[in-house]
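Hi everyone, sorry if this is the wrong subforum. Our group has a chain we'd like a structural model of before ordering constructs, and none of us has done structure prediction before. Sequence below.
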Amino acid sequence: MIFTETKLKGAFMIDIERREDPRGFFARAFCQREFVANGLKPIIAQTNIAFNRTKGTIRGMHFQFPPAAETKLVRCSRGAILDIIVDLRPESPTYLNHIAIELTEDNCRALYVPERFAHGYQVLRDNTDTSYQVGEFYTPGCEGGLLHDDPRLGLHWPLPITVVSDKDRLWKNLDEQREKIRQRMGSEPI
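Answer:
Right subforum, don't worry. Here is the predicted structure as tokens:
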């Protein structure tokens, strides 16, 4: 695997190294040893999948507060998504900065999302499948989210938005929950 750290410390794009032959290709998509060697947490508590019928669909911006903060390894196995993460670590020099990475069935790229980041994506093609390997169990009392269209975040979604869940529409804007996020995300070394 090829690990490329993004401008957000601890967040990595992970590309596969294809071994091709007449049958197609074979590649490693996860390896505990390689994750540890790159300073990533190799724990997988759950694996989740999402099927998205319609391009333009938004999922996010989701996170869990400590003590149930979660890492995510996100990959698109069919179709394409634009994946966006936001740094919610108050002590980070990139606090509230974000990156956007296109994950597609063709590039086989994954995005490693560290703990204390918000995560969401927009579906770029109809009938898209996405998988998440998550480092912590889903904990409803620790769940949080940001509005996908909060002007304060400055997120750019490339397509007109077609579908957003009621739950995702009801998150408060950043200014209304900024202090809560700062307090609950704590100050851990990065």
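For your construct planning: The first helix runs from residue 32 to 37. The chain has a mean pLDDT of 95.
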